[in-house]
Structure of COPA/B TPR domain-containing protein:
Amino acid sequence: FRQQALAVTLDTEHKFELALHLENLQVCHELAVELDNEQKWLQLSDVATKQGDFSLVQECLTRAQSFGSLILLASASSDQQLMSTIGEQSRKAGQFNIAFLSSFVLGKLEQCLDILIENQRLPEAAFFARTYLPSQINRIVGLWRDKLKELNMERAAQTLANPTDYENLFPGFTDTNKTEQFLKQNKKNTSARNYPVQLPNWERNPIAEMKAAEENGQFSYIPIQSNQRITDDNEDNFDDANETSTQSTIKDLRFDDDDDKSLNDT
């Protein structure tokens, strides 16, 4: 008798539940718009998924701001526009983990870096830049140092070595800069139908690809003017540093009584 009850009931909540059990998507949608309740949108999305109405599923999840489920939907349907929209909306909603993930999936590395900086995740931003955007490492290390100084951690700020200035501490740093430029120049979108014949990323060696292209004359590195060098009057000299001396320096590092007191005060 649910159909008859649906026709006569005046209670909106009850009517929605009846329409949901009857899987009447049109009535459910009208009532969900009227109620505008997150739980109702999620319930409707479940029923719409069973019936294969994915446009309605997308609307329900968007209204409910269920960005995690939306990412799954966008990935399964290879919807680049939806993935981009998820990134924008989740960032505005303060769900930065989702925003970062959607940007990373789309290959928007600069946007990923901006999200980390925006949330003051400067150590993570530095490692992210070191891995994916080495051309940005100079700027990020500068921001990291400034943040440490704001926290009265002057000594920690001085120990941060900038790869741009001290390449002897970061073997292969020049090659990573070249590879970043090489990958940007050769970036292209590939159709999902080519997945079976596409070489997986974990089997690729981007640096080797860059060197091969460079030897064949297919790639020529154009040095980019780096950001202004970060200097500090009390900065340690890293020029002659090596792994052994660095380890011994760390072992021999001691704080005097005044330093201990200042650290405790902070």
About this structure: Residues 108-185+204-266 form one domain. Residues 227-266 have pLDDT under 50 and may be disordered. The chain is about 65% helix and 0% strand.
